[in-house]
Amino acid sequence: MADTATVASGTHEETSAAISKIGDWVVAKHSSDSAGASANAKARGNYAELSFSGDSVEWIGRSGPSLGIAEVYVDGVMMKQVDLYSNQQTFQTVLFRTGSLSTNTHTIRIVRTGTHSASSTGNDISLDAFRVIDNAAPAAPRNISVAPARDSLLVKWDPSSEPDVVGYRLYRALEDGPFALISGSDSLSTTNFLDVGLTYGARYRYSVTALDSSGNQSLRGKLPSAVQPAPVTPPFRASNCPATGTKVSTLEQLRTAVASARPGTVILLAPGTYRGGITVTSSGTSDKPIWICGPRTAILDNQNVQSKNGVHLDGADNVHVAGISIQNFRKGIVISGSVGSSVADVSIASTGEEAVKVRYSSTDTAVLYNVIRQTGLAIPMYGEGVYLGTSPKDWCSVNGCEPDRSDRTVVVGNDIARTTADPIEAKPGTSGGVIRGNTIDAGGVSEVTTIVAIKGNDYIVVDNVARNGVGPSGFYASETEVAGWGQNNIFARNNVALLNAGVAIYVKTGANNVVDCSNTPAGQGVERSNVVCQK
């Protein structure tokens, strides 16, 4: 005896625990059988029985020159005698099919009669599988909701309680336009979908259907809608700098003002050349930040790319550096262990290593509308334009062997060219950042092949324009050094041009990275991505 639980739609092989096979059944293996084998009943009165929930059921088995006659019962009523004889052996033959049944639970039984036709040489009957068919559509999904999330719209719904639902299909309409399938040819196995690459300020409507194992699709669920909100740039531009404050015109005055800075301090640099850099250790607050501002003609110039930082925010929170120029330092701006600080509208040029480095678990940093030129003049392999986090090989020396969680960095609107290493790189350990609207020329890159390297998690990379990438990949989201990173990143509306054949956006597969079809590749032989794009 077998476990005679009621089964739902689908193909149930003769080995299924749900099929009761009474008597002497012998396995007959053949590659042409469903799942490679069937079973033959060897004695009169032997039977096989299945309880099922569906509109119809098929008995599948072999026919052949040595097979006999069976009786088929549905819900205890003899429906038909079936002669399995044929002059040649056939496989996966539909030997019996019911008509349309009620939606109740039913039972099918096939019985060996021990008789055969005059042409047959044997009495056995064959069971390969029972196929339960369900023609009833499942109920529509319930509690569908849509809300802004991660520069996208997140659609969610309740899972279906019907046992044969195998997935869902998601449809979207722009404003009052027609609905189109956006979830792809395969049904969704999850009950949520992050719709990326949408137009800011536009309203979208959604509907969801359920799909069962028989291919039946439900009616569409509730039609919620939401507007894709435009992103908000942090208000730390040079134009946001207060007009009044402590005015300085020499390096000594600047350093004195920095040393005595307190929450709410505003330091205004006069035009001129300041022969050295500054280190800021005082913090502002979110409502009373420290500002260090000036025109582009206020220039910090070290005249030596082998040493020193132009501006170092060392454990200083809520400090905003805006508008000035920094050149000829080892590093342009370094933000270490800071919360809520920014660098905006700054010209950073001729650095020995990185132009902007955000490290040591600095969080909520904004890198906005800066012009970056000529990095890596001392050590080309360290010549990133914007570098987020710390290399895993240095975690133990600088962070107690823990990841550098420099999270939620916003890198927006920067003009980056002639870097020797990645124009933008986010290291493993970092997460939740936004890389948006940057213009990048990778023509000077010599130490790497990527333009934007995302090795952290949960980044949004949108609306960037990049050119002169050497390939074979332009934007990159993966991580080989540390497991668990290079995941859950979004790429949408980027234009990526490569000089050689390759892929504009390469992402690690199986890591929930999403490449939207709105990304545009450019260059001969350049494909959009190594994965199928979303929508």
What is the approximate shape?
elongated
The count of strands amounts to 50
Strand content: 35-45%
Low-confidence stretches: none
Query: For the largest beta sheet, what order do the strands appear in spatially?
Result: 20-21-24-27-30-33-36-39-42-45-48
Number of discrete helical segments: 2
First-residue to last-residue Cα separation: 49 Å
Rg computed from alpha carbons, rounded to a whole number of angstroms? 34 Å
Share of helical residues:
under 10%
Query: Taking all residues together, what is the mean pLDDT?
Result: 95
For the biggest sheet, the summary is: 11 strands, parallel
Indicate the structural class. Answer: mainly beta
Keywords:
535 residues; mainly beta; 10-stranded parallel beta sheet; 2 helices; 50 strands; 42% strand; elongated
Report on this model:
The chain is an all-beta fold and 535 residues long. Helices cover 3% and strands 42% of the residues. It is built from two helices and 50 strands. An eleven-stranded parallel β-sheet has the order 20-21-24-27-30-33-36-39-42-45-48, with helices on one face. Strands 22-25-28-31-34-37-40-43-46-49 form a ten-stranded parallel β-sheet, with no helix packed on it. Strand 13 (145-149) and strand 14 (152-156) form a beta hairpin. The longest helix has 9 residues, at 251-259. It is elongated, with a radius of gyration of 34 Å. The two termini are 49 Å apart.
